[in-house]
Amino acid sequence: MPELSRRVQTFTDSVIRRMTRISDEVDAINLSQGFPDFPPPKAITDRLREVADEGPHQYSVTFGAENFREALARKQGRAYGREINPDTEILVTCGGTEAMMSAMMTVCNPGDKVVVFSPFYENYGADAILSGADPIFVPLIPPTFDFDRNVLEDAFRQHPKAIIVCNPSNPCGKVFTKDELLFIGGLCNRYDAYMITDEVYEHIVFAPYHHVYAGALPEIADRVICCSSLSKTYSITGWRLGYIIAPPEIIDRAKKVHDFLTVGAAAPLQEAVIPGLKFGQDYYDDLLAKYTHKKELFLKGLDDLHIVHNDPEGVYYVLLDISEFGYDSDLKFCEDLARLVGVGAVPGSSFFREPVNHLIRFHFAKKDETLLNALNRLESLRSKTPLPQKELKGTALKREASQEQGLSVSRAARNPRCPRLQRYYPGVTFLPSMTMGATDAHHYEQICDTCLRCSPFMAEPQEAAAGVHGTNERIPVRAYLQGIRVLIDLMEHVNLSC
After folding, report:
1. Total domain count for the chain?
2. Residues 403 and 455 in one domain
3. Please, what are the averages of pLDDT over each run of 10 residues along the chain (498 residues)?
4. Domain residues for 426?
5. What sign does the CA torsion over 160, 165, 166, 171 have?
6. What is the reported pTM?
7. Which of 385, 417, 438 is the last residue of a domain?
8. Same domain, 407 and 363
9. 212 with 108, same domain?
10. What is the signed CA dihedral for 458, 171, 175, 182, rounded to 10 degrees?
């Protein structure tokens, strides 16, 4: 048999969609793929019922029905602060995904380079490969996910054809400022590149942050190709309605790509969504208030469960730090989370170019009762996903203080005051003590036969193999973060009156 395309050998299927399938299989609450479980606005669904009877049911103009483009031009024109020509500056696509692919294929020739911020929505890497381009990854630096301007300019010195800017950013929630967009646009001007923006979460930006449309900035507008979608704004992810706004010469080329890629977006759905495009500002204010409430509810629940997470500036996603659980694979953690706890998540490694395996992504675009149910299930997270036993190998854990070995045990040891630490060290009794220089704790055994020696900072096996102190006194970030969590739990839950 002849060889199949080599392009598809360089990336996997969508991990996001894979986690949805796993969630469905095990009846987990799906907080992985970002779609709501509440209906679109009634004005849109009412119009859909009418369209079902009266049509249109045949092809519309391939680059978008005229009345749809006119309504979209008026809506986005208000946001841009200028008129947008519905005939020459808008292309209607089959969702934001096709918008991004059409933009990439319009801009890139085989062998061109494209700058991509990491973390990134997983489609971007595949978009570049399928367009014949080579991605240059530039890290967004946690916890604020800002970028190093020198590093970004170094990437531009490789003369990329374009840069992709997701604003607000999926998955990390970063909202790019006007100053940042102007800096990026300035590099595009200096090095003759395009800025392709993904702005599908334009209306989900939390105070005090606000969304800036790069295409509305006159200094860089002629290089900006804005890709967006109606999916998140109107809770219609299954309708697959997206668009590109760009200068006429770019739209003219993109129409050719779109014509042969998908022909056109669904005509009945274009007609049905027009009432939504005519909503006043009060709708978008209410939408933001709704998502602000959901964010506050869900993040407070995570805080109550002592789960470390970021605080997104926009979008309806949150990144959780799973370092304390000691998994080598965040994908395996997400699979266990779905099957054992009943909550679906996306492994963070699917968004990062860097070797990041300690983050997962949840979304909170759900009914309150769904989010509360998910939080209730997450209460069992630590008991149902215990620290793998292999992580305990090679630690300075001593069990001589256990009753099984017949040693005298103090009243405090017989009645432990910190049961939550059992998830880290099953079956071990903890005593309230703090020792400077943990490896010297054996000195206390001269005066106390119930002394427990334990270090919360556990070296990885490869580090421990290099010597008792690891390599240059280092421990991995994962181990460090987990140790902090152990100490926090110790301070919070040990009753010093014992």
Report:
1. 2
2. yes
3. 77 82 94 93 98 96 97 98 98 96 95 95 83 93 93 97 97 97 98 98 98 97 98 96 98 96 95 98 98 98 95 97 90 94 94 90 97 96 67 33 29 39 52 52 57 62 57 65 70 51
4. 389-493
5. positive
6. 0.77
7. 385
8. no
9. yes
10. 100
